[in-house]
Every structure is written in structure tokens, then in C-alpha cells.
Amino acid sequence: IVNLLGINYQIIILSFFLSFQLNAQQKKVKSTTKTSSLSYMKNYNGKYPYEVKLIEKKSVLRTRLQKLLGKEKFDFLESHFDVQSPMVIRNNVLIAHGCMQHNCDGIFFNIFYDFKKDIINVGIKNEEKEIEILAEKETFLTEAVSWKTDPLLDF
Hints:
Blueprint: E1 3-4, E2 7-8, H1 9-32, H2 60-80, E3 83-84, E4 88-90, E5 93-99, E6 107-114, E7 119-126, E8 132-135, H3 142-149
Antiparallel strand pairs: 1-2, 3-5, 4-5, 5-6, 6-7, 7-8
């Protein structure tokens, strides 16, 4: 142990090492934290999905929709999400509606995102089939269930 001018260099080196190790651990925690939150969509109220390229651009939302729906259903949604309504946010849930051009009564969709729960639900109406709701973590949002019961529900 070197003691120069009353300073214990062993303590200084140990403090420096612990500080460096703590900073490295904090950076590691930050880098492994999931960034799945879609809070940026809070600005989408009143905007059309096409304006913000809701499902067109490479984004966390697109990735999560693809995972939730699977390739076939995602491709179906993407290819028929033609006629769109302005998105609304009600009770902290964003709702995006789209349907097939010239067949809005037969094929239509609602995308629901709950900002607090960080959960996506997608409702799909495909012609004569019953409305299907797909939910992340099997967590069905009240808005999605209400819409399935009453597809003409105005949000």
C-alpha cells in the first residue's frame, strides 16, 4: 500500500474500479431493455394511418403486428387496409380502422393499441366469417371485445 501525502491510493483505485464497473452494468441494463413501447403513436390522434405510414414502414408496430398475426393474416391486412379513417385515442387506446376498397362491408380491420398495457389487439372481418380478434399475451382489450360485439360501434 502506497500512502503519499495521506492519500491511500488503494482506496482511490478501488473506488475508480467500482465506479467503472457500475457504469458498465447500467449501460448493459439499458441496452437489453426492450423498446417495444409505442408511445410515439400518442401523436397520431386524428391522423390517417397512411399519413404516418402506420403499417408500411419498418417499425416496432409492424414487427409486433407480423408476430401477432402471422405472415398470411398480416399480408391480408396490409393488402386490404385501403380505405382508412382518422385514428382516435379513447381511454388511452389508439384505434386505427381500415377496409378493402369497394368492399368495406365485407373486409375490414381495427388495430387497437393500449398505451398503458402496451398490448395490441387486431380485429379482422373477412366476408361471411365471424369477426376474429387476435391479442398479444391473450389480453383482450375492452374496446376490441366491444367492437366484435358491435362492428358498427363508432369510436
